[in-house]
Structures are given as structure tokens and as C-alpha cells.
Amino acid sequence: MRTVLSLTATCLFLAGMPAGAQTTPAPNNSTVIELAAEASRSAPNDLGRAVLYAEGSDENLPALSRKLNQQIAAALAVAKTYANVKTHTGSTQTWPTYARNSTKIESWRMRSEIVLESRETAPLSELVGKLQATGLALGNIGFQPAPETKKKVEDDTIVDAIAAFRARADVAAGALGRKYRIKQIAINTSSMPPRPYYPMAKAAMSADAAPAPTEAGESQVGITVTGQIELQ
């Protein structure tokens, strides 16, 4: 896994104190310095997720429902032949179509989704193509870190961020010629997953559309550590 590490840290300064040496008097007349540090790493997007759907309209809602249910059932049957692709049904939406300038319902429209997830790109891509050939349309497809992958990268980044916090504390306390102890610390996590890929409508509705997965890429996982050190 390629790792990109960036560390930044800042001291917060109180009004009236010299720049670079902000301190806060504690109740016991000790001195407290507030610090913040950040670290980030790249997590591989090793989990692919695709959403396909069947959609149609009909004056007869039960008939429309049966038709789409049959399409989804057929898609699930095909998907079950791929042991390394997890499959489950997604959302189902139904809405009426009204006559022009009227509250009378002319017909019904319905959309049902099927969701695919896999750690392997090749079978996911192949299955997406097969389901498109059955008449399903591709809603979107994207990649993100698997839960266990994200947790491992977060744990490693926490170590980096705490090390950055301690390094900044060493600098701040050393500049004042004092030793210190960590009084308080808080850890916050942030991540920026990639945007899902949305195919063009025409391509998505094509029965012979080519499988759409592309390079999975990486997501950034960031950790921010904030806290206080007390000078001794």
C-alpha cells in the first residue's frame, strides 16, 4: 500500500502573550499550553460497490410491480452464481403520473434496485455487464476502503498524529525551558471517500453496455489530535 503522510501542528495563542508562546494559567498557578496536530494516510479503495436498477411504468400498478419483481429476481439468481460478490436488494420507489392539469392518476412508475459489493474488481465488473444485458440499468459504481482496511489505516494514523502532538509539545515546552505532562487529549477522525461514478444515461440503459468499473484509487484518512500540556 502506498502511504502518503503529512503532519502539521499549531499552537493556539492567547491575547497579550508573545507570539509562539501562548500559555494559560491553571488554577494551581501552573502553566497550560493548548496544541493541535494532524496526520493523514492513504487507504486503498479495495471494496467496489455498484447499484443497478429496473424501472418502468404502467397503468396497472400490480402488473408493473410483478414485472419489476421478476426482473430483480432474475438478477439475483444470476448474482448468486458469483460467490465472491455480495448481493442484496436496494430501495424500491413507486410514484404516480398525473394527467396534465389534473389530479387524476394516469399511470404508475416504479424503480427497484439491486446492490453489488466485492473486494475483487474483475468479477464485479463482469457481473455488472451481465446484469445490464438482462435489461437492468447501472445507477452508479464506486470504490471505497473496506471497513477492516479503513480501521487499520485509522489506527496507524492515530499513532502518527499522537507522535506529531508529542513532538510539538516537546518544541513548545523546550522553548520555555520547562518539562511537561499531557493534561488532556482528544482524537478526531475524518475521511474523504472518492465520488461514485455515474454513467451517462444512454450508456446505462443500453443492454450491451460495457462494464464500467475503473481504477479504484485511494481515499484519504485524517486524524486530528487536540489537547493541553501542563508545564512543570
Short structural summary:
Helices cover 28% and strands 41% of the residues.
How would you sum up this structure, described in words?
- The protein has 232 residues and is α+β, with helices and mostly antiparallel strands.
- The chain has a domain at 47-144: 2-Layer Sandwich (Alpha-Beta Plaits), CATH 3.30.70.
- Helix content is 28%, strand content 41%.
- The protein is built from four helices and nine strands.
- The strands form two sheets. Strands 1, 2, 3, 8 and 9 form a five-stranded antiparallel sheet that branches. A four-stranded antiparallel sheet has the order 5-6-4-7.
- Strand 5 and strand 6 form a beta hairpin.
- The longest helix is centred in the last third of the chain and has 29 residues, at 147-175.
- The protein is elongated and about 80 Å long.
- The two termini are 42 Å apart.
- Residues 1-22 and 200-207 have low confidence and may be disordered.
Shape: elongated
Taken in chain order, the helices and strands follow as EEEEHEEHEHEHE
Distance between the termini: 42 Å
CATH class of the domain at 47-144: Alpha Beta
Number of helices: 4
**Average pLDDT over all residues:** 83
Low-confidence segments, given as residue ranges, are 1-22, 200-207
What's the story with the biggest beta sheet? 5 strands, antiparallel
> What is the CATH topology of the domain at 47-144?
Alpha-Beta Plaits
- CATH homology group of the domain at 47-144: Protein of unknown function (DUF541), domain 2
